[in-house]
Amino acid sequence: MNTKMYVGNLSFDTTEADLRELFSQHGGVTEVFLPTDRESGRPRGFAFVTVDSVEGMNAAINGLNGQSFLGRNLTINEARPREERPAYGGGGGGGRGDSRGDRGGRNDRGDRGGRSNRY
């Protein structure tokens, strides 16, 4: 049973403790995940909060969605499961290998529709 919520439009000053306190008014909070930017370490403006019951989740969504919190109007929805991403084997990109097939060289003009190859 999914009891995880997406919490959006958070202030960048929001902490996990702030979210635990806010959501505990509507039931037991079992997990708070507040993603941060890899480079700056600052919160990214959204979080995922998991509560211990469907009733608690519904109460939190109904009671807090659209409410002002730390100067921002919250967006709260039931979290959707993560979609599977295709496994590309990691890595990616890299180099300028000739993986685009025969693109021809400077003098390879191909068929130019009756024009003579003047170069």
TrEMBL record:
Biased composition regions of type Basic and acidic residues, renumbered to the chain: 97-119
InterPro entries, per database record: Nucleotide-bd_a/b_plait_sf, RBD_domain_sf, RRM2_NsCP33-like, RRM_dom, SLIRP/GR-RBP-like
Region of interest: Disordered: 77-119
Keyword RNA-binding: yes
MF-aspect GO terms: RNA binding
Organism: Phragmitibacter flavus
A Pfam family: RRM_1
SUPFAM superfamilies per UniProt: RNA-binding domain, RBD (SSF54928)
Keywords: RNA-binding
RRM domain ranges (all copies): 3-81
Protein name: RNA-binding protein
Domain of life of the organism encoding this protein: Bacteria
